[in-house]
Amino acid sequence: MTNKKKTCAIYCRVSTEKEEQETSLSRQEEELKKLADDLGLVPVHIFKEKHSGYDMEREGLLDLLDCIRDEEIDAVLIQDETRLGRGNARVAILHLLAKTNTTVITNTDSGALKLNEMDTMLLEILAIVEEYQRKLHNAKIRRGMKRAVREGYRPERNLKNKGNLEGRERIEVPLSEIVSLRQKGLTFEEIATVLKGLGHNVSKATVHRRYKEYEVEQEG
């Protein structure tokens, strides 16, 4: 039984549309293909583009991120760290790749990207901030749910197929639930967090708009 080889995506970038840069793109591609071969990696996608590294809205970059999200890609190969991006864009992209546990390999390092102390610290801070934002969001959902239950709301009545292993059934935002929670004194933000906890993808603005539409209908 043979071991399955690890896969990689190759990303090449130059900053301008000048014709001479086409040579640089081709050189990057060839050198990264050789690096992949040396490391025993199989290139399954190659992305090339001419675009500023300070810009996040790059077709090649977005395609690369989609590829990493949708497929089993073990590593991303780049010529050097600036090919991913420059300035804040570079740090943001490195953070996204770190979240997917994708190894970034550079030709200049002949292996995994070596970050300096400042980059390492920034990425650690971003990870910590994101984790606390997630905890805060979950805490708001729990608080809103507790208050709703305290006021007599029964969330189990809004759940279907409780034995379904796939989870809660997602349905359209129920106006009756919005009205009921509002009449129990919850704010629009609290109503939104309660509904999100029940599996409804709804914002505070949507809750507010639907309730105001309800009030206009009642007055009419």
Question: What are the salient characteristics of this protein?
Answer:
5-stranded mixed beta sheet; elongated; alpha/beta; 5 strands; 220 residues
Please tell me about this protein's structure:
There is one protein chain. This protein is α/β, with parallel strands linked by helices and 220 residues long. The chain is 51% helix and 12% strand. It has 7 helices and 5 strands, in the order βαβαβαββαααα. The protein has helices at residues 21-39, 59-70, 87-99, 117-150, 175-183, 188-197, 204-219, and strands spanning 7-14, 42-50, 75-78, 103-106, 111-112. The chain is elongated, with a radius of gyration of 24 Å. Residues 159-171 have low confidence and may be disordered.
Q: Beta-sheet strand percentage?
A: 5-15%
Q: How do the strands of the widest beta sheet line up side by side?
A: 2-1-3-4-5
Number of H/I helices: 7
**Strand-pairing-aware structural class:** alpha/beta
Q: Write down the overall geometry.
A: elongated
Radius of gyration: 24 Å
The tally of beta strands, per DSSP, is 5
Largest sheet: 5 strands, mixed
Question: N- to C-terminal separation?
Answer: 74 Å
Mean pLDDT: 83
Helix content class: 40-55%
Give the topology string: H per helix, E per strand: EHEHEHEEHHHH
pLDDT < 50 stretches: 159-171
